[in-house]
Amino acid sequence: MKYEKYGLVNTGAMFDDALVRRYAIGAFNFYNMESFAAILGAARQSHSPVILAVSESALKYMGDDMLMAIIDAVHITPDENIALHLDHGHSFDSCVHAIDLGFSSVMIDASTKTFDENVALSARVAEYAHMYGVSTEAELGVLRGHEDENTTSDTEMYTNPADVYDFVSKTGVDSLAVAIGTSHGAYKMKSPTQELRFDILEKIMELLPNFPLVLHGASSIPSHLVRTINENGGNIKNALGIPVQQLQRAATTNICKINVDSDSRLAFTAAIRQSFSHAPDNFNPREYLGPAMHAVYENTMDEITNIMNSANRN
Fold it and tell me: Which of 16, 65, 72, 87 is catalytic?
């Protein structure tokens, strides 16, 4: 299994532990050296398992060789419980490519296809991935919102609990992303009082007891980060994330993996905007990328500790 040479693990054992001890593992997206170092540093400092998530567009941006060189350079060990995960792979070939690179987990996102097409593609990916000890995630239901050019939808469709057992049985996937009201991007909620559909989640858990579930589009969109961006030349208005209390509740259920991307982007951007505002004559990248990296580190530490409850699980 190629990922083992990088000290990575798949998500099997970490999800088993999360189910038993009722916490979630953060899947934090990264896209450059600074965001990678911040997330890894927070996981190591907090002694938390972590899933390093890379989208298709982020992989294209960083490049295969650069990404794997960065992974190799930080000397990950299996006892740290770190997985490298392809987020929203949209084809069999993209998942195979990630597995061949050394990813230890892949998501095949065929959620916008018909049920039968989703089953067929997810089963094909799972069969290939399992030959190499790689974990496979699939998705039922559609999340609205925009994450990047590869992950966007104007429609929303909640997961139908009646479909979940049949889907998992036919595909053999290791975890299932469910749609219960989260969404991609910085505009997740229509009002501060909106609730996730925990009634749907409970029905899914009844039909899939002790099976790892995943929550996508689950950033909390911290108001202080949005405020800092807007106070320093930004224009992110009326952004609402998933309330922290609801995420904390989800982490005590069969939700073993909570995806975070927008929060890290906001932290990174807020620090850079503030740096430019305070020192408009600065043109040294180290002097604004350093604070950006620290901001992502601080946000990741906070979410590991106060949302995932995954600190000190290693």
Answer: 87
